[in-house]
Amino acid sequence: MSSSGLSVWSDPVDSRQLDAEESPVLKISIFLTRRADLTHEEFVEYWTDKHLPLIASVVDASVPVRRHVLLMPTGDEIPGLTGIYYDGVVEVWFDTMADATRWFTSDTFTTTVAADEENFLDRAKTRFLYATETPISG
């Protein structure tokens, strides 16, 4: 993994600490599949050692991201519960859908971040889940 760390965009925000009056945080989970010519290890190496530093180099205070988290699959499964497999998952938090749209349609994202994704992702297989959180416990 990258020595630069995984917290790329902003300080972590625990959504459970939000005021009840505040609108819920929009969480976008992005399910990633590597290019067919890469091993999972090559995918992880490029993602953490090259792509994350690239993101860190273009992100500034104008980027409306609350939190950015990487999820790496463990390969574990519980018997009887069918898992899904992706090479990685990114969770990005925004205050609003407008903020998310502004980031994902910005020139910075499309010409720099998305362009670099071609080096390690099969973008045709990338899937997005847009959600808000409803805490149950914890």
Describe this protein's structure.
This protein has helices at 40-58, 97-104, 107-117; strands spanning 26-32, 65-71, 88-94, 127-132. By secondary structure, the chain is an alpha+beta fold. The chain has a domain at 30-74 and 86-132: Alpha-Beta Plaits (2-Layer Sandwich), CATH 3.30.70. Strands 2-3-1-4 form a 4-stranded antiparallel β-sheet, with helices on one face. The chain has 3 helices and 4 strands; from the N terminus they run βαββααβ. It starts with 25 loop residues before the first strand and ends in a 6-residue tail after the last strand. 28% of the residues lie in helices and 20% in strands. α1 (40-58) runs antiparallel to α3 (107-117).
In terms of topology, how is this protein built?
Layout: E1 26-32, H1 40-58, E2 65-71, E3 88-94, H2 97-104, H3 107-117, E4 127-132
Antiparallel strand pairs: 1-3, 1-4, 2-3
Helix pairs in contact: 1-3
Features:
four-stranded antiparallel beta sheet, 4 strands, 138 residues, Alpha-Beta Plaits, globular, alpha+beta
Oligomer: single chain
How many distinct beta strands?
4
What is the level 1 CATH name of the domain at 30-74 and 86-132?
A: Alpha Beta
Biggest beta sheet summary: 4 strands, antiparallel
* Percent in strands: 15-25%
**CATH topology tier name of the domain at 30-74 and 86-132:** Alpha-Beta Plaits
* Distance between the ends: 29 Å
Apparent shape: globular
* Proportion of residues in helical segments: 25-40%
Mean pLDDT: 84
Rg from alpha-carbon coordinates: 16 Å
Question: What pattern of helices and strands is seen along the backbone?
Answer: EHEEHHE
Q: How many helices in DSSP terms?
A: 3
Strand line-up across the major sheet: 2-3-1-4
